[in-house]
Design goal:
The protein is built from 11 helices and 12 strands. By secondary structure, the protein is of the alpha/beta class. The structure holds ligand PBG.
């Protein structure tokens, strides 16, 4: 017998044929760009561990959102730092809170842009936990009441979507109920359905000063060793009313993304988190890799695994690169 009997290289022979058979393509329309808004800065302040990413004052964030929109990115997800933090995160419920104001500013400047708000307490609590603390423990059901009010407040401010990231049990149902009760029947819920307790959130916690002041998040965020539990969390969130479900982080959890895509029929988002961003930027800056190639490969892998939507700090760079290669 004479080898080779098959020649797969035929389909890799030229750029034209490679393009023809390419199965996964990134497009700006599938990206969401995270933006940090802070009441503690008066000028955009660089986040040291995330080169190229800033904390924006409330009156400067709309311009940044507009730039992203003009690059073809349809949505932003907002994270806020209030000037005051307390035990219950009460600043998050204020009509003129940092996120409520940012939503209004963006909606006014770019009405077509999808504005998504993270729903959680950790950016607003002085102890840094994602829930109400009682006797040193996170009180699930007390937390639900505040999360539901927070989501309704963001919807009232004009948010198109709310994205609960706290990992309390039953929060999607509690939020859906509150939204419907106040008449926000069209506000979309994008649930952080599968959120692992991950070292990849380090730079984010620096950015919003939300590292827990005692203990860790392991009683609510998932153990990275578990996969079946991820399927259970997604099923629960869909049942409670999630319109879009998310897996987070992305790169180290491609197997979870692939399983979720195979098992469920709702749009699937993946969050390419702050630590993943930092790794790629540092590798690029230290000449360990070509940054553009590395980032495009990582994001293509996340999409190939099954993500319909990618939340990424690289979004504007990617949109720019895709435009250049058209
Ligand atoms: C808030 C929240 C976190 C992230 C998104 N929402 C941090 C955390 O859970 O500690 C992380 C995003 C990132 O790392 O880019 N609960």
């Amino acid at each position: 017998m004479k080898y080779p009997q098959s020649r797969p290289r035929r389909l890799r022979k030229s750029a034209a044929v490679r393009r023809l058979v390419q199965q996964t393509r990134l497009h700006p329309a599938n990206f969401i760009y995270p933006l940090f808004v802070s009441e503690t800065v008066s000028e955009p302040e660089p986040i040291e561990t995330m080169p190229g990413i800033f904390n924006y004052p409330v009156d400067r964030v709309a311009a940044e959102a507009k730039k992203a929109y003009e690059l073809g990115i349809p949505g932003v997800i907002l994270f806020g730092t209030p000037s005051k933090k307390d035990a219950t995160g009460s600043e998050s419920l204020k009509k003129d809170g940092v996120i409520q104001k940012a939503v209004g500013n963006i909606k006014q400047a770019v009405p077509e842009m999808l504005v998504i708000t993270d729903v959680c307490l950790c950016e607003y609590t002085d102890h840094g936990h994602c829930g109400i603390v009682k006797d040193g423990r996170i009180d699930n059901d007390e937390t639900l009441k505040i999360l539901a009010r927070q989501a309704a407040s963001y919807a009232k401010a004009g948010a198109d979507m709310v994205a609960p990231s706290d990992m309390m049990d039953g929060r999607v149902g509690a939020i859906r109920e509150a939204l419907d009760e106040y008449g926000y029947i069209d506000t979309v819920i994008m649930a952080y359905a599968v959120k692992y307790s991950s070292a990849f959130y380090g730079p984010f916690r620096e950015a919003v000063h939300s590292a827990p002041q005692f203990g860790d998040r392991k009683t609510y965020q998932m153990d990275p060793a578990n996969a079946d539990e991820a399927m259970k969390e997604i099923a629960l969130d869909i049942d409670e009313g999630a319109d879009i479900v998310m897996v987070k982080p992305a790169l180290a959890y491609l197997d979870i993304i692939a399983r979720a895509k195979a098992a469920f029929n709702v749009p699937l988002a993946a969050y390419n988190v702050s630590g993943e961003y930092a790794l790629a930027k540092l590798a690029g800056a230290n000449k360990c890799a070509n940054e553009k190639q590395l980032v495009m490969e990582i994001l293509t892998a996340i999409k190939r695994a099954g993500a319909d939507i990618i939340i990424s700090y690289h979004a504007p760079d990617v949109a720019g690169w895709l435009r250049e290669s058209e």
